Amino acid sequence: MTHGSVDSPRPVQFDPGLDIQFRRDPMGFGFGHGVFGPQPEHRSLDAIRPSLHDPNCAGPDPVYTIAMDVGRNEDREELQRRMLLFGIVIYASGRLGDEPVRSQGHVHAISPHSGWSAPELFEIWEGKAIIYAQEKSGDDPGRCFAIEAGPGQRVVMPPAWSHYVVNADSSAPLIFGAWCDRQYGFDYTQTRAHRGLAWFPQLVASGEITWTANQNYSASKLQHRKARAYPELGLSSERPIYENLCRDPEAIQWVSDPARFRELWPHFEP
Description:
- By secondary structure, this protein is mostly beta strands.
- The protein is built from four helices and 20 strands.
- The strands form seven sheets. Strands 4-5-7-16-11-14 form a six-stranded antiparallel β-sheet. Strands 15-12-13-20 form a four-stranded mixed β-sheet, with no helix packed on it. It has a two-stranded antiparallel ribbon with strand order 1-2.
């Protein structure tokens, strides 16, 4: 990995197969030759306060920066035809009060073209992530998982699961890419009604993360695991997830067409 000044764009630890660099201060992205991407959006601390353990906490602001609809110029029509969207995200280092830096808990809204709450495929590019997932959004959260992932590892979020992404290393940024449905949307209704998801990550003095149950849900068990492979989805671990668009697009088509695995999702574990 090439290092420069904090304001200089630089590559990430894991090569995603796209010519993309990132900046830490201010957070942002650089798009190389043949790669398109929008102006990034910045998520403020105020925007995510309703789902935090301490809504009045101090922390980095913006908390993270996101660019949706990124890709190679020659792939634009194919992305639109397949209803696929590729996004990239950088999280700030630091902490949000007693929590690590993280996103707001949400579930994906129903995509009009498919009639499904879309799944999502994450790929970590730099840093250490924990992706929290719970099966249901109501009072009973169902199965709950905290999944650790590092550079080059992937995590699949099944349809209709509530989730958020945690920067598990407070001393460094977290950067990742993700395949989403082109008609993606976020539903925060139940998250805000329950003042967060069913488990809160807590940073202790050693820098490790422990977990506190949200008492606004019925009792649940949190299962901890490492990122895994997903052969049942036909997903190769030998290439970056963006490369599937050109080399094996059917391996990611389930992101915008989850009905093709309708028999798998009820028992699927991230």
